[in-house]
Amino acid sequence: MNNLVSVEVLAKFFERDVRTVQLWANEGMPKEARGEYDFLKCVKWRIAKLEEENNILRNSMDEKLHALKVEGQKISNMNNSLKLRRLLGELISFEAAKIAWLNETTLLRKNILALIPKLTTALDNVNERSKRQLIIAELIYETLNMLGDFKPDLEIDENEMLDDDDKVDDNKDLNDENKL
């Protein structure tokens, strides 16, 4: 029985163009003579080729799926680690940290605003700039100490304070709260 067909018949059967069928012949599709192909051998070759391509795709998908599973397991482990650390008291929730931060900033704001009347009273009758600086520094340190265990990073050196001879107007109104 003669199963020989032309390249055009194969192209029509596989729903490809003639050039693709010729390229398949270069890749190993059985060819009887120039322009003549054994139809059954070509169909078997094409089926084997498609199965091979499917296996490659299946294996690459298996690798991608495995990588996704590994990544998912890493994320799950990280979440479990965070939950454990939270239960052990090593971590706090975002909401708890936010509340603590708001409490601290409210306390800081309250103490800073309390400096205004303290400074106004303390500086009422002080005309020397160096003495004003010393009073301001002491009140600031006092306020910081109320906020926690504040340790000044430098000692107040009265010799470094500005002298009254410096070109600063000592008669500025320190009581003006809009300037603070």
Describe this structure as you would to a colleague.
By secondary structure, the chain is mainly α. The protein has two domains: 1-91, Orthogonal Bundle (Arc Repressor Mutant, subunit A); 94-179, no CATH class. 64% of the residues lie in helices and 3% in strands. It contains five helices and two strands. Strands 1-2 form a two-stranded antiparallel sheet. Helix 1 (7-14) packs across helix 2 (18-26) and helix 4 packs antiparallel against helix 5 (129-147). The longest helix has 49 residues, at 39-87. Mean pLDDT is 79; it is low at 154-180.
Q: Averaging pLDDT over every residue, what do you get?
A: 79
- Helix vs. strand class: mainly alpha
Identify the CATH architecture of the largest domain.
Orthogonal Bundle
Quaternary state of this entry equals single chain
Radius of gyration: 43 Å
* Range of helix content: 55-70%
For the record, the CATH class of the largest domain is Mainly Alpha
Terminal residue distance: 107 Å
DSSP strand content:
under 5%
For the largest beta-sheet, the strand count, sense and barrel status come to: 2 strands, antiparallel
Shape: rod-shaped
Describe the structure concisely.
The protein is mainly alpha-helical.
